[in-house]
Amino acid sequence: MKKFFATFLCLVLCGGLLPAQAAGPEVNAKAVLLMEKTTGQVLYEEHAHDPLELASVTKVMTMLLIMEALEEGTITKETMVPVSATAAGMGGSQVYMKEGESFSVHDMLKAIAVASGNDACVAMAEYLAGSESTFVEKMNARAAELGMENTVFVNCTGLPAEGHHSSAYDIALMSRALIQNHPDIRTYTTIWMDTLRDGTFQLANTNKLIRFYEGATGLKTGSTDAALYCVSATAEKDGMELIAVVLGSPTSADRFETAKALLNYGFAGYSLVTVAPSEPISPIPVTLGTADSVQPVLTQESQILLPKAEAGKVSTTLSLPDTLQAPVEKGQELGSLTVLVDGKENQKLPLVAQEEVPRLTLWAVYQSLLGTLFCGT
């Protein structure tokens, strides 16, 4: 009790009690990281760049490459994928595929996302790249493209292998690429229970947050004796999706409690705010053009991540010329929209021409002058 009051007094004398948000979430893991999906902003981290074993969280990259193959049209969800002896012989988590069986890509994704099937991963790797080793080369190439500097993949499953490692930050990068570019992956990562083989084989999601955390959208668990308990957990609330990566928790329960603490910390403390002009953007007059004016527009919708206390303090100012002289190209930068948070500049967004305005030809100018003269007589 004396220790408690001494600590309390110290906090008060040193400037008051810190709000709970400033203290950070309570975590129990070797490394953690919390990232917001849209902006990629990191909200909390501990040892986020340490290279660590990641177990079946590896399958985030495997799923990313499968989803990219679907997007490219290399495969469809109805494509039937054969199971080789190698794939059927994979240990660890599996759905007990047999050599000579074939499953649709749809069912393969269910097996990977829900049951963490190593056999399904290898079957897909062999189908897409000819062999698991060639597929792993593609995994490492994609990791390099995403800026995953502390990652080396040795297999597509996450089974223990010397040199196979990643970091909490790198896992967040590939998780973000998966859920941001391929939102359809939620079709699989949000399944709690399902079946394969026409309902004869039961699947249960290894990610218990899908059942017990409101807004959970995925993503992938993993555990081995060396990696301990890991998860890349995603959840969405109020239009904001967060990625919580947990590596090396001592128990499965600690893994999920740490992920929940990270997600709660993010949702409680931050908001994703859509930026819009504080006033309508009027067309800019154009001289010597085939049109009298051109409309400035934002190139894309912008969203910024802010502490909730600052979410209501966003304003904007416009910087545009009074007039323009033709020609004006479509997409030409005309000015900017400055975003202010509590009166301080946060970012500048370009405003561009919505359409092209060609310059009048000499003959068109001459005709215009003639028209003016005759109309004036």
From TrEMBL:
It comes from the Bacteria. It is an enzyme of class 3 (hydrolase). The active site is at S56 (acyl-ester intermediate), K59 (proton acceptor), S116. Its EC number is 3.4.16.4. Pfam families: PBP5_C (PF07943), Peptidase_S11 (PF00768). GO terms for biological process: cell wall organization; peptidoglycan biosynthetic process; proteolysis; regulation of cell shape. InterPro entries: Beta-lactam/transpept-like (IPR012338), Peniciliin-bd_prot_C_sf (IPR015956), Peptidase_S11 (IPR018044), Peptidase_S11_C (IPR012907), Peptidase_S11_C_sf (IPR037167), Peptidase_S11_N (IPR001967). GO terms for molecular function: serine-type D-Ala-D-Ala carboxypeptidase activity. Gene3D superfamilies: D-Ala-D-Ala carboxypeptidase, C-terminal domain, DD-peptidase/beta-lactamase superfamily. Coiled coil: none annotated. Residues 270-359 form the Peptidase S11 D-Ala-D-Ala carboxypeptidase A C-terminal domain. Pathway: Cell wall biogenesis; peptidoglycan biosynthesis. SMART domains: PBP5_C. Residues 1-22 form the signal peptide. Keywords: Carboxypeptidase, Cell shape, Cell wall biogenesis/degradation, Hydrolase, Peptidoglycan synthesis, Protease, Signal. It catalyses: Preferential cleavage: (Ac)2-L-Lys-D-Ala-|-D-Ala. Also transpeptidation of peptidyl-alanyl moieties that are N-acyl substituents of D-alanine. Substrate binds at K220. Belongs to the peptidase S11 family. Removes C-terminal D-alanyl residues from sugar-peptide cell wall precursors. This is serine-type D-Ala-D-Ala carboxypeptidase. It comes from Evtepia gabavorous. The lineage of its organism: Bacteria, Bacillati, Bacillota, Clostridia, Eubacteriales.
